[in-house]
């Protein structure tokens, strides 16, 4: 199968495609269908141009109860993220301890083998 010939886009064409995609909220696959630009190329152009991706966009419907600048959404998002960050270490620690208990049986850090008293008696005998 012969390789497809690469198409070159001028700076003006790139700017127009990016502007149209941003204005209409197109996904990378929609850009591919409409303009023939592969998603990898589209993302590369978008990154180089500095235009925001999906994460940086405003909500599509202003009727969602959030102001147009997204102050409430950002406040809620940061509060939830902060709470998750504070809870996550304890959750992970608990999960790891449960896994180790199930795998090794019993508490982690428990000594296995001879009881410590037996060693002391041997040392004591040698000292006599």
What does this structure look like?
The chain is mainly alpha-helical and 128 residues long. It has two domains: 9-52; 75-128, no CATH class. The chain is built from five helices and no strands. It has helices at residues 11-24, 28-35, 39-49, 71-104, 116-127. Helix 2 (28-35) packs across helix 3. The longest helix has 34 residues, at 71-104. Mean pLDDT is 78; it is low at 62-66.
Number of strands: 0
The ordered string of helix (H) and strand (E) elements is: HHHHH
Q: Using the alpha-carbon principal axes, give the shape.
A: elongated
Average pLDDT over all residues: 78
Largest sheet entry: none
Oligomeric assembly: single chain
Low-confidence stretches: 62-66
What is the end-to-end distance?
A: 89 Å
Specify Rg, calculated over alpha carbons. 30 Å
Brief overview, please?
The protein has 128 residues and is mostly helical. It has helices at residues 11-24, 28-35, 39-49, 71-104, 116-127.
Descriptive labels:
elongated, 5 helices, mainly alpha, 2 domains, 128 residues
